[in-house]
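go over this chain:
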Amino acid sequence: MNKVKGKFMIYNVPYLPFDFNIIEELDTDLMEIFRKSRELLEKFPEIRESIVRDQDIHGQKKKVIRNEVKRYNDVHINGNYYLFDCIEITEPVKLEKTGRERLKPELVLYFLIIRGLWGSISDHAAKQAIHDSISISAVLAHHSYKVPGSNTVRENLNAVSNKTRRLIMDSLSMLILLKGLDDFNEVYIDSTDVAANTAYPTDISVLYKLLDRVYRSFRFLTDEFGFPMLSDGWLDTRMKKLKSHLAFINMQIGKKGMKGNVKEKFKLFVSLADNIIKSFFDEQEKMLIKYETSDLTPDKSLALDRLWFKIDSDLNDAAYVLYYAELLVNENIKLPSREKILSISDPDAAFIQKGQRNPTIGYKPQIGRSRNGFISGFLLPKGNVSDSEMLVPTVMEVCRSTRVKPNLVSTDDGYASEDGVGILKNDLNILTVSINGAKGKKITSEDWDTTLYSEARRMRSAAESGMFTLKYRHSFGKMRRRGIEAVEAEQLEKIIAYNFIHMIKKEKKRLNQPDPI
């Protein structure tokens, strides 16, 4: 922090000499989030410990790589040979502090909530908002920090494990209970379709993209790792021809009178793709000895392993896509979407169909919502799992997260399951299990017309409005990250931010103050 003419500068944001009372006096939404996050850490210090442990693990992994690079350089560059090279290193040699700055757990939690609120911490709008915010500058100055670079913040946030994120969510539920803002005695369950960070493809588009990525990966092997160039000189020509076939199919498909031409071009595409895949497997076999005998620094060796694994995985995926494309062309057999590869950017994304809505390539998270609007439970199953299978697991997750067994569970017809209702009522002793719709009425026919069940169905509509707020106001329906673990992390952050904002909203309502954000 630089002193300039009696004022302090934080990343070019000037303000008067820092007064620690400003943390309590600034009346902004971002400052209120900081106050609540600080309160959460005070009441649940295990969050701080968990964040520090995640940072230690993340830093240790990076340190091991740095140590191995140092050993490699000592041997191959400096000529210093070790007597016991075969002995496993159990504790990495302590090195001088390098890499990005480690943020305090208080700031990691604060920025994690902000990323959940804004959706990003590193895009242009987010960086500008951080730059301009007096509240963020005051919080950072309170901890003797200047505004860190976006990469520093992102790396610290990405070090946080999903286990820690769930600990934060669970602890927040406990804080809500302690404040008397909710008792979590009621839970309203619903699922939603969440679009993955991908585009809806056709089978041949997926096949072309896989082969194109393999082709570029082979060239990267040559450029970055010194592998020999592809010996098949016709691959470049055939890849261009494959792209030309794909462009024709995409432009002509669905046009009147073009069905025969499209089908013929589809056959040519599949035949050419088969030829290219065989050539790629041959090229991989020729490069195998070079891969197995490569003498690289440990960091580059790790990068080579990852690239080689990606080539191998993409080639096998391409062979599988070719298999069901040939089934369609030769035998007119179409595999169901759940058995197909739907995205090369997010292989965990699935074909999601909810009711009469347009299908989505993505995920179907299960959400438990309390009567007062807090998210009390969250699960992210892989694939398009039926809601009826997720009834009991979602309720169990609510019980685990809030440490409260609800008296009432209310949901829609998709969750109708006699076995599920039986487990909730008989094994968990939940008094009221209401399921809306014809199937639900059949399962709960004895209680359907009671006042309690009618009220449960009415309140479920309010729960759906909360889902709308979460999905569209907090961008829960569109993911930036890819892969189920990263998507789960992103969704947990958005749920944590949602619950924080909702908690502030409820507390301000008690004091008859304006709602936040």
About this structure: Residues 259-292 form the longest helix (34 residues). Residues 1-20, 82-97 have pLDDT under 50 and may be disordered. Residues 66 and 287 are 28 Å apart (CA to CA). The first strand starts at residue 2 and ends at 4.
